[in-house]
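Practice problem: predict the structure.
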Amino acid sequence: MGFLRRIENRLEGVFEGGIGRTFRSNVQPVELARKLTKEMDDNKVISVSQVYVPNVYTVFLAPDDRDQFFSYEARLRTELAGYLTEHARREGFSLPGRARVLIETAEELEVGSFGIAAQMEETPSPSARARPPAEFTPDAPPVATPALAAQAAFEADDSMEEYFGGSPEPARVSAPVADWAVVWSGGVCPIGATPVVIGRSQDCDVPLSDGNASRRHAELGRSDEGFVLRDLDSTNGTMVNGRRIRSATIGTGDEITIGTSTLRIERRHG
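Answer:
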């Protein structure tokens, strides 16, 4: 029972997850789907007119079990999330936000055993995500790179053909000066010339209140192509659009997942 206790310690702040046991054969996707819907049913909350259920599920797998899903893990997560969404619809449950399934490695688990943690995570509205914390003070305007300057000019122009037909006059770029920032549920951090460090430590530029994040988990910096996200040898890895990465070039619209936290890059006008 020792490994169960260690998993419970890692799930502090979320619903208690159940532990699924199989024989010594590898965990199969259908077993995960069955256990995920059971966790949803077991963790429902009855309100005045709605029955709420968790929408974020973290699956903990033994290293060998996770390795078998390596080539299609992102698709499996998407499929399981869709399965949960459909189950909630059939049962008349209300999800506080988009259903998401995360997969993490638990070294203490044996092949054929897995754990699931269920959590309610409300998706913030665009206006809430855009509101900086009270103590937020913007840095000096970032150094413009050719790629970012071209993107700003393109977004200020209503016509792609007109833009590529000739160099736009300076007076036509009427968009306000923009800063770039990484945005998460806990706040906003501007992206300057120095890479932004993301992690559980309060010393990080982006401090995450997430037990699944490493103290110094990843860093985000600028490049000529946009922004580069690098994993800093974290325990549970870094995901971009559902795919685990070591280093990746990213931009606006890409979803960064660290533990159970979701981050995005946004263009902040001032």
